[in-house]
Specification:
By secondary structure, this protein is of the alpha/beta class. 37% of the residues lie in helices and 22% in strands.
Length: 226
């Protein structure tokens, strides 16, 4: 029988994605776009922001009859790509797939940001609200008889610091979801930050990490696959 993955929707730390457009109203015109448009994703390929951006890019490309290119610029919890978008010419041809990390969390995590999340961007639309989901490596869950969140909490309290909690990076919603969980339950895990969802999920499935609070879209394929 297949070992279960313990799942629970987190009631907070929901990831909200928005597209930011550097387009002053004076530059807007009926002929837009006249050339290729780029969407910067400030995270690696395979994560939620990347998945959403590629869906949006495909539909915009059909609507505009112009290529819409997704450009992954990962690093520093989304700061690298977001800063590049902020420096781009304000002509509407560089879009940013912003997240709760780039435009909310990072202000509290980093002493100084290379961009102003309010002044440097004009929001266009909310693309997708994303819940985070708690997932355990099946062999780890099986070995310790963990079938519910209550089982997990009991094990964590009996073994403080022994469980490795993967995240998509320091200060991301997946990291802070785990920190919130520990604070609410009085437990302690060892945080292991990765550079995006794909490597984090690979290690959770492989057993190098024990669990993760991942954004649902990047985990959905694995969940459907059992």
């Amino acid at each position: 029988m297949q070992a279960p993955i313990v799942r629970c929707r987190l009631i907070t730390a929901v990831c909200l994605m928005a597209t930011a457009l550097l387009l002053p109203a004076a530059h807007a015109h009926a002929d837009y776009p006249e050339r290729d448009v780029k969407i910067i994703v400030p995270f690696p390929a395979g994560g939620t922001a990347d998945i959403a951006a590629r869906v949006v890019a495909a539909e915009l490309g059909k609507s505009w009859n112009k290529p819409v290119v997704v450009d992954n610029k990962a690093g520093a919890g989304g700061n690298v790509g977001t800063a590049e978008a902020a420096r781009a010419t304000a002509d509407g041809y560089t879009l940013l797939m912003g997240t709760v990390s780039t435009h909310a969390i990072n202000q509290s995590v980093y002493s100084k940001l290379p961009y102003d999340p309010v002044k440097d961007f004009v929001p266009v639309t909310l693309v997708i609200p994303v819940p985070n989901i708690l997932e355990l490596n099946p062999k780890f869950a099986d070995k310790h008889g963990i079938r519910t969140v209550a089982d997990l909490i009991k094990y964590l309290k009996a073994n403080p610091g022994s469980v490795n909690m993967a995240s998509t990076g320091n200060g991301t919603s997946t990291h802070l979801s785990g920190e919130l969980f520990q604070s609410m339950t009085g437990t302690r895990m060892t945080h292991v930050p990765y550079k995006g969802s794909s490597p984090a999920l690979t290690d959770v499935m492989g057993g190098s990490a024990d669990l993760i609070f991942d954004n649902l879209p990047s985990s959905m394929g694995y969940i459907k696959g059992g």
